[in-house]
Design a protein that fits this description.
Layout: H1 14-23, E1 27-32, H2 46-62, E2 65-66, E3 73-74, E4 87-88, H3 90-106, E5 111-116, H4 122-133, E6 137-142, H5 143-147, H6 163-172, H7 188-192, H8 195-201, H9 203-206, H10 210-213, H11 227-251
Parallel strand pairs: 1-2, 1-5, 3-4, 5-6
Helix pairs in contact: 2-6, 2-11, 3-4, 6-11
Length: about 260
């Protein structure tokens, strides 16, 4: 059986990647995040680090190949005015994702998962449909859909650079987190509406510029975050995704274009 030195596509020789896709597993996972400010205490690459950390663990459990994370992501316009954020336009991000899938397919991968750890990334959905029209089999998953399963461990609803995101950061990449700089900031909108009201449905939040909502870049209370909470969230999501991957590897072939 062909072995791989690393779960990451880019850390293996090209010929071994091709052999692995042919002989072992033809599923590739693309982690998607962003370069986006996450308050004074977390790195701007938090979303990308979240996606990479989860995909690495899923690839280890499932045998899927992890594709290099592009790091940059697309953003709703309300993020564009925040220092520490480097956004891509939707068109650029869609094209980037499509090119990555096209390139990986040349190496023999037939089934793709886009795993996004960045909020409100509608570009991935467009990329899935456009790639489908070209004959590629691609699914888009968003980690918030899995993290909602463990909301009871939080003291506050999930927002941004808050208890939830800081807990994940403390678990996955603590060396980049400086809790001595963490601050609590509850913007007025948060005190009047729930996370589901604003993040999922309300046009008020979607159209409110971040630089008008928060001075620190924080929306919530990272001071109550912990690595223990992050572990509960991340490991539960990984277990569910790894279980799905076992089915995805063998039960979806009849759906390939």
């Amino acid at each position: 059986m062909t072995k791989r030195e690393s779960v990451w596509f880019h850390e293996n020789p090209g010929i071994e990647v091709v052999q692995y896709a042919k002989e072992v597993c033809d599923v590739a996972i693309l982690p998607l995040g962003s370069i986006e400010q996450h308050g004074p205490h977390c790195p701007s690459a938090s979303d990308s680090f979240n996606a990479m950390g989860m995909v690495e663990k899923i690839a280890e459990k499932s045998g899927a190949m992890a594709l290099p994370c592009p790091m940059y992501g697309s953003h709703p316009y309300h993020h564009w005015n925040m220092p520490g954020t480097i956004p891509l336009t939707y068109e650029t991000h869609i094209g980037l994702v499509m090119d990555v899938v096209r390139g990986a397919a040349v190496s023999g991968f037939n089934k793709f998962i886009l795993l996004s750890a960045h909020g409100q990334v509608s570009s991935t959905i467009v990329a899935v449909h456009k790639l489908g029209l070209e004959g590629y089999f691609v699914l888009s998953l968003h980690w918030y859909d899995f993290l909602r399963d463990n909301q009871e461990i939080l003291e506050d609803p999930m927002w941004h650079a808050d208890e939830a995101e800081t807990s994940v950061a403390l678990y996955l990449y603590p060396k980049f987190v400086d809790m001595s700089k963490a601050v609590k900031e509850i913007p007025p909108l948060m005190s009047r509406h729930t996370w589901s009201d604003l993040a999922s449905a309300s046009p008020v939040y979607i159209r409110a510029r971040f630089d008008k909502l928060t001075r620190s870049g924080v929306m919530g209370n990272p001071l109550v975050a912990s690595a223990e909470k992050g572990k509960i969230w991340v490991e539960a999501a990984i277990e569910r995704l790894a279980e799905f991957m076992e089915s995805f590897k063998k039960d979806f072939d009849h759906l390939l274009p």
